[in-house]
Design goal:
By secondary structure, the chain is an alpha/beta fold. 32% of the residues lie in helices and 25% in strands. The protein has a seven-stranded mixed sheet. Strands 7-8-9-10-11-12-13 form a seven-stranded mixed sheet.
């Protein structure tokens, strides 16, 4: 099983899950044209996609969904809350929509997915844990904090794509209006570098060997700050400090090379 991000950040998010018998798009927050271009650069085509799995219905996660579902008859998996919002923008998705129940596993080809609710200001917002029966990974972004229902699962992963949205000093000292700062820093907003570091260490202490930091704010964070927060937290924890794990930051506008889970 392989993973790669196609875009990551407030301007748009999408990732690709590649397995021998399945090809799944995780979110479609960039244009369908960019998604198709990224697929072709990886030697794949949009016709090969088996499904589009959505975390929530904010535009930076669904903006390409309408065109994709209209042109490629693509099955879409989403919670009821996400589906209701999606259909207002992408009515063509109704024909291939599958409703996801948080906490209940569902299958796409040989892959098994479980959605877990996330504290975020979007109805039906979830993260996803998935496995091919051998490796285990997760996409955990867009949440104000890490609830225990997610935290306990982090310790059973081989790889993790994890939000590290903002550095608090840059957020509160930056140009955003105060209500927006409160939203981002709130319990239904986005993870800070410190919260991401705690979550990453929990995953690594459980055995994860790959952590990709995602959804970094262009205005309120820097890759070196996010990576530094995780490395500092890992150094303080003896159970983590001795473990060998790969830590990287998802590129904002382009696809990264697929990596093995």
């Amino acid at each position: 099983m392989q993973l790669c991000t196609l875009a990551s950040g407030s301007e748009g998010n999408a990732a690709l899950l590649i397995a021998p018998g399945a090809l799944v798009l995780l979110d479609a927050g960039i244009s369908a044209r960019r998604i198709v271009r990224a697929l072709r650069a990886l030697g794949r085509s949009p016709e090969e996609l088996d499904a589009l799995v959505l975390t929530h219905a904010h535009s930076d996660h669904i903006s390409g969904a309408d065109t994709l579902t209209r042109h490629y008859d693509l099955p879409v998996f989403a919670t009821e809350g996400t589906a209701l919002s999606l259909l207002r923008r992408a009515p063509a998705a109704r024909e291939t929509l599958h409703i996801v129940e948080p906490g209940t596993a569902f299958n796409i080809k040989e892959l098994s997915f479980t959605a877990i609710e996330t504290p975020h200001d979007a109805d039906g917002s979830v993260c996803y844990f998935f496995t091919d029966g051998r490796a285990r990974a997760a996409l955990v972004t867009d949440l104000g904090y890490v609830p225990e229902a997610i935290g306990v699962r982090l310790a059973a992963l081989d790889a993790l794509i994890l939000e590290a949205n903002h550095d608090p000093d840059r957020l509160w000292g930056g140009p955003y209006p105060y209500p927006l700062k409160r939203r981002i820093a709130g319990d239904e907003g986005h993870l800070s570098n410190g919260a991401a570091a705690e979550a990453a260490c929990r995953a690594v202490s459980g055995g994860a060997r790959q952590v990709v930091l995602a959804h970094l704010s262009r205005e309120n964070n820097l890759p070196e700050l996010a990576v530094g927060a995780v490395r500092s937290a890992a150094a303080e924890l003896g159970a983590v400090a001795g473990r060998d794990f790969c830590l990287s930051v998802a590129p904002r506008f382009e696809a990264c090379a697929p990596w093995e889970v």
